[in-house]
Protein 1
Amino acid sequence: MSVQKFFGADGVSLERVVINGPQGASAEVYLYGATITSWKCDGKERLFVSKQAKLDGSKPVRGGIPLVFPQFGPGDLPQHGFARTRKWTLQYAEEHGQGVVVNLQLKDNEDTRASKWPYKFDLLYTIDLTATTLSTIIKYENVDSQPFSFTSLMHTYLRVPDIASTTVTGLKDVAYVDKIKGGGDLVEERDAVTVNANEDRVYVDVPGIVKVNYGNESIAIRRFNFKDIVLWNPWAEKAAEMSDFADDEYPQMICVEAGTVASKISLNPGQTISCGQILTFEEGGYDAHDEAFRIPILFVPGNAGSHKQVRSIASASATAFIELAGNSPDVFDQGQIGYDYFTVGLNEELTALHGYSILEQADFINDAIRYILSLYPETRAKYRLPSQRTKFALPTSVVVVGHSMGGVVARTAFTLPNHIVGSVQAIFTLSTPHNNPTASLEYYVDKVYSSVNSFWRHGFHNGTLDDVSLVSIAGGSLDSMINSDYTYIGDLAPPKNSLSILSSGVDDVWLSLDHQSILWCAQMAKKFSSMLLQIMDARQPSQLLPLDERMSIMRRQLYSDWERGTNAVPESLTANRTTNDDYSYVYVHEDGAARLMPEDMKKLLSGDHTDKAGLGVALHLLPVNKATSDSTVQLLYDPRLFAIAHAPGSIAGYQPVFLGCNRIKVESNGTKPETRVTCRAIPAPLPTKLPMRRADDDPELPLYALHYMEVPVGLLGQFEFLGMQLPAKPGAAGFFHATIVKNLVQLESSPSYARLLRSLTIRTPTAKSHIGSSTRTRIRLNVPESPFFVFRATLAMRRSTSSSQFMSASPRLSPIIRQSDGRRFESRFWYDQNSVDLAIHGRGAYLPSDAITNAEDSELKSAGQWDGLLIDVWADPDYYTGFELALRINWYSSLNRTIKRYDMALLAMSFVWACLVMLHQLRTWNAGVSLETTPSSKCRGGLATPAFPSCLTSIERLIRNGTLSVLLVAAVLTPILQRVVAHLMGNVWSPATLASWNNLFMGTRGSGWVLGLVPALLVIVSLGFVALEAIVLTAICSLASWAVADVSGRFESTRKHWSRHDVLEAVSEDGRLKPRFVKIPVRPLIATVAFVVFVCTFVPYQFAFLVIYMAQLFTAIRTMSHAYLAAPHSATTLTPQRVLVSDVLRDRARYQLGLLLFWTSSLPYCAPELLVWVRNLSVMWFEDAPSDHNLANMAGYFALRLLASYHIVPRLTFNVTERVAPSRTAWWLRVMTYAFFGSAVVYAWLYSIRRPYILYSVANAISAWLALVQFAEFPLRLVSPVQKRILSSSALLGSRTSSPAVTPATSPVVAEFSGFARSAKPLATLAASRSDDQLDRKLR
């Protein structure tokens, strides 16, 4: 947000201030008259300024908000005083939490004091701009020595689309003066004031808020110390008289002016008063009451969500209610009084990453619900049913709408002690991951999910939640923020209480929606609001219809399925009808197919039937007496065909009435008998809407869906005809097609995935004639419920070559494809597309781990049964005779879906590889072998020197030695073994045990046998991630160490700083050891104390781990730079001492880098808490979870970091100098080390894919063990039985080097005993000993 001050380029325009506010809001203020000439809000200009307004200072600006002071209207001063013609001074402008505030000032001067109002004054004008409001407040101060009086007003010109459709509310029963009619006291009797002529009225002492309403928007005017409202519009005659107002502009403006003009404001010397107004932009504009009395709805935003996200749904709900109230005057008698939308501001907290925030928000939600319900006892009592004297019921519950994690917060509120039982009976969630957290990176998130889901499953089982309905709507494929598999709630609630659906299957939406657009998508908001309106009932304490009724309505509103139910037969249709009395005409389609176009219906209505045209309905008959009982009547029609009989807004909702008819013979005056039919209404299935955009459709308007129905002939019983009651007069477009199909075309295929690797072609049989050809064809693919694979389907239609009279030049509709399955969770439509991607969303791989999972509830057990992938194709049967459908696997999209579903598995697999890499490094180090050529081996003529392997070398060896193959085989066999064991033990184990067994590894539900291939793929991908991490870390450390070494070589001070531990200083120029003393590590001790204090009090342990990680990174860089400085770079520096010291430092650096790679796998589990902590600090929120300050969660990392900075891990193997077997303690340490890493690999493999946050603690435990091993090195040295021989060997080795001997007397006590690690202090001794070629060969 900013404030700018500038001059116009033409040199005439006046100075103005441009204010840029939040969310695109802006305003412009001319310093001439302090006139606000622009206010843009929600992307539109809200103020009117005439295009002929003078902006050169010659006269006041015609439009905006001119200021009237100290005189209103004509008088001793110029019209409306002098404030609007004086130049104001810009005092200051500043931003605040919600917007921008600007202050302008006007003081008296010689001109004003020379006028007929000669007082001294000081006006301070404050303009405050936010996203939806414009506040204009003037502080009037009397700085004169005598009192004065004045009138003042804000002459607000509001821009409106059309003055004819604009209303002003809030003025009823207010006295006013009509200046056009010459004055006189009148009283406004209208609820909504309209303007249709020249108006100039002064409404006196107006109470409350005044609103200007146009369309679906309104501007609310709230006043402070301004008593009156002036309403003005010049209309055509006055507009023509004004030079600065165009003749045709009056329909686009209305002046609603807040001020005090009927009386005067008086101020004594030194006295002040502040007056002003707040203009608020509102969507909906229907509610003229500020108090809550309708049905309460609470919106809960999701992860990092804003309370403002409710605006789209609230606006759509207000619009829908206005339409409902306008079309149905009795809606209030039915308890449909609209919704009051409440929302909560949760500081945009990251609830998806922090379980403790979920609990805090849920606790706040319960308090908010208690407060909302407390508002209604007083306000609801004021309103009664219009047709009765009874009052609306007092609300006892609130409808909750949650987006994303807001849905989880809403369900969590039920589990807390402060929850009011019965206060929430309906929860609607949008894109909410119910089953599992999207990112299981934190313990509390998983704990909250487990406890909440268990509460809800048992709540429906024990009756706690019997009256609660839970609806989950998800975005589907386009939602990249969450996995839509997790939105399925069939495991949490029985079908009688729950509904799960993806937006692509919702009628009139038919789209996949991303995570945010599900809130503001116009089609979704409209459909959602329509559903909410239909389930409301303010006559009930719950404010909702009973559970069964509202669930039925919600299914009817959301599901796009002709199998969802049948229509009830209207009572008016239960009586028999005869053709002559009740229909404009009756037509029998003898060929068994009805094809109606507008021109056909016009011909049928003309002629003999003209006299009955006024009846408005016609009867079309299809003979069914010869059809078999398993035949079906397929109906497909475009509702535009019936546009004449129905209002345009209700065309899409029209459907035919179906009748069973029999032929009767009636004698007529003794002449030949006249054939008549008698009919009775029959129930018929609900229609399915099919989306299709036609060539002449407006792309800006919603789709007019086609309607499709299937009526089984078996419903007709003994009737001879199926009667279809249709409007007699057709619309300008559309069609109706009905045909009897003997056998519905349904093809079944059970392809293997190996078959789909190439291509599978499914061909429909070619229809022999147009009569009886199917409109809809269904293909059932018997494939497992696998959400991994995406199938590319290519449709090729076969065009008819016959010359039938019904053959049209072009098809009435392009082919429509629908994907669905028996779960009714997901369906998708495509129209006018020949190539589509078929994919499903599963129910989540993991089962609930409690006995309620398989409760003996037939409805619960039958819900969500998988019966294969269904593909329906609709096509014009008169134009096409069949089609071919080619299916193959889309590998790229399949890989994307696999990674998206098991993104957390990559973290677990990466940890497995990190453990294996570290284990291989330790085993190689313990074995005392070298896997690569080192500088010392070159110095020794190519002989290898034992070395700590690098990360990349270990990764290469793991690939070569078969470890990769073993993991691939394990990845394939693990889910197969799970299936086999579960099948064998299904009748032995309890449901909870079976669920726990299923939830090992990656879970097996909704995966099929193909799951064995998915983990194998993830094993390879995770290996690539670990290799990439190793490359990046090695590159960073190498480049940084090279840079540090280069700088250290150039600058002596820098070299001393980075090389104060340089091991070369331990060797004198003649090769002898310098006397060294062990220094107390003061800085590490200070750092330890600081860490303990900060972690216990302020910072979370995750931040401490990040500091440890960065310190380890800098330590590795420093050690590598030491190695670089110590390495010989020319023949003159190629000495054994220098070479071997470089090797030692290189080994230590590789060990530190290996730890860094191992710890990298723990970084993702610290990121959520760090983000939440930083976010909370930004809003001054300091409350953390208690576990965030647990020292044990970082102790292992911290201890190993301190020890690894100066020492490498000891070699737990045979003594490399004397071939002496290690002590029993060393042997146990080695076995336990390998066991730790092996257990970590197995645990991560089986358990951490679902709960990867556990791996942080596992890595911490391993780090603590390695620290213990390194710390155990020191006491073991003191008790080593070969210490004296090693010391004597060191003296002997010193005599064999090219440098003078190193005696035990000058050697440090610490040396390499029994293969344990070397210290930085005795490296000269080690260098001397390793430079002996003979001993080196002996060791090998």
Protein 2
Amino acid sequence: MTIDGTALPSELLVTPQPLIGFCGLDTARNSVHKSVWDAFTGSLRKPTDRERAAVQYKQLPPNYDFPVAKPKRASYEWYHPKGILKRNWMLKHLHVLPSVVVLFQDMEWNDPQWSEKQLQCSALVQALKNSLQERQTRLCLVILQKSAPLPPGEDLMAAERVASLTSACGIPSKMLFILPHTEHLLGYTLRLESAFLDMAQSYYALMSKRIRTHRDQLTAAHATLKIRHQFKLGFVAEIRQDFTTGQKHYFQAYANLDEIRLNDGNCMEIKTLAGFLNYKICRLMFKLKTPRDAINQFIIHIEKYKSRVGFKDLAFEHFAWLSTQHSVFAELFCEAIKNGLPALQTQHPGIYYHKAAEYVMKRREAAQETYANATANANANVNPNPNLNPMSLYTEFFGIRSVKMGDPAAEQQANLQLCEQEHGFNYSAGIISLLSQAMTQFKIYKCLRFRKKLAIDMAEEYLKSGDHSNALTLYSLMLPDYRQEKWSTIFSDVLLKTLRCALLSASVADYIVCSIEALALSHHGDQKDRILLLENLWQVFQLVPPMPQTQLSNEIQTLWLNSLAQVKSPIQIDLDKVQDVLQLFATFEQVQLNNNDLVQIKIIVRVLTDVPLRIRSFHVLLSDVAQPQNSFKLEALKYVCFSNLLELRQAKDSTTIDLRPFDKNMRLEPNCYYQLYCTTEAHQFLENTQLRIMRLEALMGTDQCGALLTSNANYIRPAFRYHTRSRDLDDNVTINSICYIAPTFHLNTQTNLGHGHGPNTCEDVSTTTKMLVNEYYPVVTTISNPHNVYLQNVGVHLSVPVALRNSVFLTTDISAGRQKLHSQIQIDVGELSGQSSQTATYYIFSLKETEIKLQQRLTYTLDVDRPNGSTNVHATAVQVATAPTSSDSTPEHDNNNGKSMAIAAAAAAVISPVQIEYVDETRLRKSRDDTLSVRCYMDFKFSARYYTLNRQPLPEVYKGENFLLRANTEVMALEDIEILDSFFICDHNLVQSNYSFKRKKYTNRYQTGDKLETVIVLRTNATLKDWITSRDLDQKTKKFQNSLASKFRKEEVDSAALAPPTAPPSASLSAYMSKSGLISKIPTTMTIINNNTALSNVLQAASAVAKDEDTGEAVASQEAGLKSTRLIYNKAMEAIQATGHCRGFIKGVYSLEETPSNNPIFGIFCIRWRRLNAKEENESKFTLSGLNIVEPALNIYCTIEEKMFVKMPMAFKVVLKNPTKQVLHLIATLSISSTDNFICSGHKQLDLSIMAFDEKELVYNLYPLHVGWQELPTLSLEYNTKADPQKNDSQNAQLEELVQRAMPKRVFVLPQLRQQNKQ
């Protein structure tokens, strides 16, 4: 075959680079020369040096023969070339003739043999000059030295010897370079490389100028020379990296091709040069980022020369050229994509690879036709020489054969020689390679369907080439895709070709699979073809080759015998993929069975093809849904045959069915329905097991070889339905793929909620009273064993949901002072004999109104070998213990012993809440999870507000000031209750007045909506920064005396020495938080108190004393841990460390609110109550969040008699207390109202001086004159600015505010008593 049509020359495909030759380097024996060569060629370059100029270096031997320059022509007028472009021109300028020759010499300036080395160097330079006569190649000299040169002007010897050396060698000084071999060798080589590149650029620029001079001498008759010179100019421009100019010259040369008249003689030359130029143009267009222009140029190029075939006898030569054009353009496209060019599904390299493969196919057809005609019509005297060198057919020009034109014998001889060369070409390898590259591109750009088509073409090419194994592999990979997409025609064709490949490659497994699938009616073919396939299939089952020996070659016959001898039986075939051959369905007779029932499975089989099939056996594979690794295999032993679906439906309602035994290799007729039966005992499976039909199996074949047909048991309704019972299977048969083996649970529970229930309640859950907050709500659970079975280790485990663990608790002990609260409890019932029962009582305590869903788990142990116990055995005592864990599952309560299960619409069995665990081989533990729902309602709605003594809202409290607390309570209980008592326990830092201790009398009965109010007078003794805890009190009792002098000194001494160790000096609020430990851990011993949002949003945890944790009040089970146990005090007084009457430190407070507050706790308001006519007392506790406490400028206390009578004198006393360390100078004025309601005696105006931390009393005698509400005399205070000039009006206003808050405004005057009237 012609070398110009099959591939482009390698020198055309590479990127042209300047050629620089090195002389004088002995890299084999001199390490210095080797390192210099590596530095230039890139072996020592770093990854950051990738931007270095593209230069090609060549090491020249000592006696290198440079090409001899051709003599110059004076004129091109009578010059007619034999061709357009010589084969050796690109090779010469790329690899043979360097643009720069560099001579390397080892010379030191101080070398004692300098003269001899200088003479030797000049001789070498002169020899190179003689070899490069009439060449424009640049010549330069590089001196290799061991040390770096000195700066210019400092080394006089170097300057002198440089001048001497350049003069002896006859080269200019700029052509002499010094290369020190030091650690900076790479830097020096970069500089030298830049200088060499400049020389090369000047050489190629001069070369371009010379070519232009020759081009300008051409006339219109020199069309071929114009093309040659334009190509050379473009090539030289590429070497100079001037791609735009190179593209312009190439395009001009391509246009000049149109000036040459095309005929059969020069057609190959023109197409060859056109291919070269098109390749260069497209390559440069891709490089210059104009891909659309490159694609358009290629399309125009192909359209122009696609019809220029040339000699018809050599048409294969034309198709080879077209294939080469497409393949090289695809490679250019791929390279451009790697450099960042985006491609599309409609335009990518795979399209051109595929087109190249198609032209190779056309080339094969044309070559076969040409070879057949040439060998038939060839002259007997003309015989091709088989030993002839292919290059002898071509001249030194591209595209021109060395055949004398006009000599028919010579042309025929050349054509025969070309045909002989073409006949030895491997077409299949070329086609497969191109198709493989095309498939890769189509896969990248998501053209999957076309990729499948290419895979089929490749498989066909493998089949034509005789590589049946690879063809079978490709066909097998494409079969599932076409099967899934329902391409029946394509799939049938691919299936038959796969079957043929399996036959020719002796693949037993693939042949059996394809043969069974080819039996389907959806594939094209007659019944006789399917009968022949079935006969061949049974021959393979009998270990006999599928076709008669006369139809198989000896080689294939031997392959079949070897394959059949090594076949592994059975061969699995998935019927879900191989469709329309055999239809299998399976269903359980019942979706739920007991342990003593019989499991029965029906298998419905139908042959979908028109030829009968013989099946050896049918099996069903069952598995446990919970443990899929446990599988069971059942064989069908009985069957019934029906001719249609209506008979199958009628047999479902029939009581008598004639079952026949299933025989081996039973023949199944087409269009008949076979119903097979598999049976087994249910006790072979574990209780509480869900059985699922996983797979159906049908064994086909003989004992020597068989096919195992498997099908998934999941029934999939066909996309097309007939909507008639005569054709739709699922309208006639209920398909249940799951069967549940229900367990037997031997315990029943009956739960009674609330107070006042009777012992013989028969309901499962009965409620007599509703649960309230802060109440121990009783729950009585009756556990009965209605079966004649002896049960051991019977227990009830109860747990609170995780979301309610901190607000709802359980307990079994409500004795006074020992309330243990748990998040989960375990009640051990013990043993229960048959037909016996036992009760378990526990209490629920809730801190908030919510729906409570307790998780209840019943457990017992059953001795399977132990006989049933007597029904007269007495019940054992119930034991209680805390459990470490609780069940997270909360299924609804089921009271039917697992005998009734709801069946889902999809015929799937409901999983029972009963769990089974084998303790050992003879004991079984069963448990069941239930849910108990209880609604908890609110008991009281509590709110509290703070006021001044004048009934004004109080924003903040002054230290030492009396203020009012109004506590309002609304009954929210849905049932009548009795309130026994209510009282307020204040913090140690507050003091209640004696008036607050008077108990309020309550009625006997309160209903929903009743409201109560309590008024309490309080006074605080400390600000937040001085807030005292129990620990501070113990420490300060020993250190400080409660006197004025000690208080005065406390402010003077160092605060660090006297402050409590747990309270660092800070702001008042942070000191309070640090002392009281509100953000510390929640203690185990605490009082759990309702906290109203209107009062506080705080999560408060007062620090618990260590001794409180060690007293044993919060003793919990070691298994349960601190998180599941809480302790609540039945009486609020037990929750405080008393320091007075209804006053003390709170041991522990736990609130349900999420948002913390910074205010202190002023105390706890407690309400003792009980249900109407009940004995159990409950206590609701509410924390009172306080206000900010500040230091006042003056404390004012007013004392007046409780009752006042007309015309009876009374004492009106005002106490002024100075809480500061400064002396206060005041003016007190008492003014009587204009109505003269009182007669007053005392100082109407008085100047006062109150020492630090001292107090003064103002006493007045009032004589009331009228009955009823009377305005009291008004006391006004102001600072004496004469004695204390620092005081101003703003401070007087603050003082007036204190007076208004503390002094009463009116008083009610009673009439005279009778005794007074008598007097």
